[in-house]
């Protein structure tokens, strides 16, 4: 009878110690999954900080109305209520682009068309961009293809 009582006390003491140790440790799991969760949590603030720099949240992606511009050579494209226009320093009023297609993805918008018998494509993508000449940071990059020529620049929503 005394042996059973000693065994019960030892078992109870071991159970109490095990409960105490598990309560003080991290959640249990498969190890790798726990580490991955910890890493993701520690990286989350950095990802949120980077997202805060972007002018448009990912779910709204690229606005339908935008202004893109580039340097060397200078050019600009405006997609607004008057349609798509391509401008240069020599033609500040711009030339209307005949739009033949538009494709919006989660983080990009492509507008294709023709400009004076040349194939015209502009892609606006979510990524911060500097025009290289000012301190302004734009929320989007722009890639313009006019015929065989490719130009790179920055873009922003038309209303900003």
Strand content: 35-45%
Helical content stands at: 25-40%
Mean pLDDT: 73
Q: Major sheet: size, sense and barrel closure?
A: 9 strands, antiparallel
Radius of gyration, whole Å: 29 Å
Number of helices: 2
* Order of neighbouring strands in the sheet with most strands: 4-3-2-1-9-8-7-6-5
Query: Could you spell the SSE succession in H and E letters?
Result: HHEEEEEEEEE
Number of domains: 2
Overall geometry comes to globular
Distance between the termini: 85 Å
Low-pLDDT segments:
1-60
Number of DSSP strand runs = 9
Derived from helix and strand composition plus strand pairing, the structural class reads alpha+beta
Keywords: Signal
Protein name: Membrane protein
What can be said about this structure in brief?
Residues 1-23 form the signal peptide. With 160 residues, the protein is an alpha+beta fold.
Could you walk me through the main structural features you see in this protein, from its secondary elements to its overall organization?
It comes from Croceicoccus mobilis. Keywords: Signal. This is Membrane protein. This protein has 160 residues and is of the alpha+beta class. The chain has two domains: 52 residues, no CATH class; 92 residues. Helices cover 28% and strands 44% of the residues. The chain is built from two helices and nine strands; from the N terminus they run ααβββββββββ. The chain is globular, with a radius of gyration of 29 Å.
């Amino acid at each position: 009878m005394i042996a059973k009582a000693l065994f019960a006390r030892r078992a109870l003491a071991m159970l109490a110690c095990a409960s105490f140790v598990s309560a003080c440790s991290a959640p249990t799991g498969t190890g790798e999954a726990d580490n991955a969760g910890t890493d993701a949590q520690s990286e989350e603030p950095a990802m949120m900080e980077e997202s805060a720099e972007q002018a448009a949240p990912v779910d709204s992606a690229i606005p339908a109305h935008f202004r893109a511009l580039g340097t060397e050579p200078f050019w600009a494209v405006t997609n607004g209520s008057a349609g798509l226009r391509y401008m240069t320093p020599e033609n500040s009023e711009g030339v209307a682009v005949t739009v033949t297609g538009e494709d919006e993805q989660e983080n990009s918008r492509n507008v294709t068309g023709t400009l004076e018998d040349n194939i015209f494509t502009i892609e606006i993508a979510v990524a911060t961009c500097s025009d290289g000449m000012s301190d302004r940071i734009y929320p989007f990059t722009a890639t313009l293809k006019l015929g065989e020529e490719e130009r790179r620049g920055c873009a922003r929503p038309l209303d900003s």
